[in-house]
User: Fold Phosphatidylinositol 4-phosphate 5-kinase from Arabidopsis arenosa.
Amino acid sequence: MDMRSGDREFPNGDFYSGEVKGLLPNGKGKYAWSDGTIYEGDWDQGKISGKGKLIWSSGAKYEGDFSGGYLHGFGTMTSPDESVYSGAWRMNVRHGLGRKEYSNSDLYDGLWKEGLQDGRGSYSWTNGNRYIGNWKKGKMCERGVMRWANGDLYDGFWLNGFRHGSGVYKFADGCLYYGTWSRGLKDGKGVFYPAGSKQPSLKKWSRSLESDDTGKFVLSRSASVNVEELRSLNTVTQSLSVKTSAGETTKNSGSVSDRLPDEIWRTCDPPRDFTCHGPLSKSARFFGSGQSEGQDRNRIVYEREYMQGVLIRETIMSSVDRSHKIKPPHRPKEVRARSLLTFLRGEHNYYLMLNLQLGIRYTVGKITPVPRREVRASDFGKNARTKMFFPRDGSNFTPPHKSVDFSWKDYCPMVFRNLRQMFKLDAAEYMMSICGDDGLTEISSPGKSGSIFYLSHDDRFVIKTLKKSELQVLLRMLPKYYEHVGDHENTLITKFFGVHRITLKWGKKVRFVVMGNMFCTELKIHRRYDLKGSSQGRFTEKIKIQEKTTLKDLDLAYEFHMDKLLREALFKQIYLDCSFLESLNIIDYSLLLGLHFRAPGQLHDILEPPNAMSDQESVSSVDVGLAQELSIPPKGLLLVTHEPNSVNTAPGPHIRGSTLRAFSVGEQEVDLILPGTARLRVQLGVNMPAQAHHKLIEDKEESATIELFEVYDVVVYMGIIDILQEYNTKKKVEHTCKSLQYDPMTISVTKPSIYSKRFVNFLHKVFPEER
Assistant:
């Protein structure tokens, strides 16, 4: 059909002038809608395609590429408010590399995704502030650098527009603070270097945060500063939170005039950190009075610890003391020679993780469609095994993969399928958590077993390598374990979700168990303890203590006071679980305890001054708050009647029990409210509120440390672990008794109750009964 030119007016008032093909616009043409919108440019079979210019009746205009009636390709959009975007488009939304200048002269230059900043980008505010780094869904996320107009600079991690994770804050006056943040507030340990002191290299810090060969940042948002005991001054750390409200153009077949992007961009100008520099803090003045006047003050730095922006302790130390030298975050340590699996390094470790994911995907996919039934004795037997060979090129039963050939063995698949359902785990979610594209992360082992630990990408599951003897213990105890967890939904004993073995092509066998992560929570875990009720060797050298170090019995400096009914429920279950372990002749188990500290509630108003408050006003206010604090108990937690629709009732990877009742709320089921943070369901071992009372311990090495508070609100997480060590020989019993300061003559294989009695007695001291 020949091309021709012509004009046509439509009954609705629209008008077209230009080339047509048949009855459809094709080629160059101009179309005017009745509402005043005008397009002039290329057409293809009745659709806007090619180069063109579109002007809306509102005054907005776009000039650039079109495809199939959509803004698609490269083009420039000028909005009615005079903001201008020039860059890539996809289906009417900004997508790809682009630059936008806002009507208030703010400027963003970087990557976009579905109309929002996403990826690497730079945002400059008209007031002189500038951020360079990663974005996600229109907010600053992951690694980024923020420089304020006053000269302050933050280099570290972000989440949803807030500083979150490890970072370094450099003040315009030359002071430095290395530490961790949580939702915009200092939360955790860090080191403060006053102006003029010897400071670590910022380049070294930045290199530790750089991306690896895959392009992903090595350090996660949860990574921590590698320091010993860190103390902190009172600081208000507020963050820049960038919010985008966008009503994007729709992807429908309607008129182009209906697809005008209408964006509102709002920013909150970030105030600088209100920080008492150097000797302005109370503890610094206290220690300064005892120092000789000739001491070189340039060598003094401050180890600090914050909780939600509030100072809890500070230690003065020398910047030249190598034992206290701050180290930037680093990659997970390589497995040492003492490890059970010394060969798992580099490429071999990658193959092992890939094989594990392939095997679990195969196991879950095969067993899930099988109709559920009650387990039989044969499901626990030696023949209850599934074996499969995974060649690299694939087979009739297995997919091709990029790893090496390996054999897979799945133990008691029907039993663990039923356990996962008993623990209310969805099979698809379980498989995606472990076998998804994000992969597994190797984490350092807190114990001496030499086992390797992997963490799923969503932190829900921990995978641990097992010795052959540990595997044998687990399989022997499995029938009683299945019965115990079925009878006691509130059990604190570790949840097992699967046991597997991989045989690599050179013959090496690696055994794994999949467990629930007790510390999978939206709250930050500030302290971790492994408690056995012993004093023999149960301490951690101070030089080895880092923020995520699992501490031991003698390191615990608190006792915890709970609601009457919460405590009764806790010890009722501890007795039941210990009796179960006694029946299996297992005595060397531990209570893994995790603590989330809440900042003293009465200081929040004092420590969060208005944005316009001066540094001097902030400092004086903090001093007044410290003077008042000692006589007021903390009130940072609140128990309220349980409302299922107000909390997340989905089962976690570690717990599936009922909601607990509290005496203080009329013996009703309760939720825990953390003001400004969350509302959580209270279950045994999870989200349990308590007051932590600091025990006074004389320690000459701590003479330079000031504890600013004696009582804290805490949220407690706990579970019983290390239950795969079966002591069934006299030699093993004597060795264990010696390490735990027992008399081997008073304990036998038939009377493991002595261990559990001491274990429970110790916990009674940790969680004392109210008098």
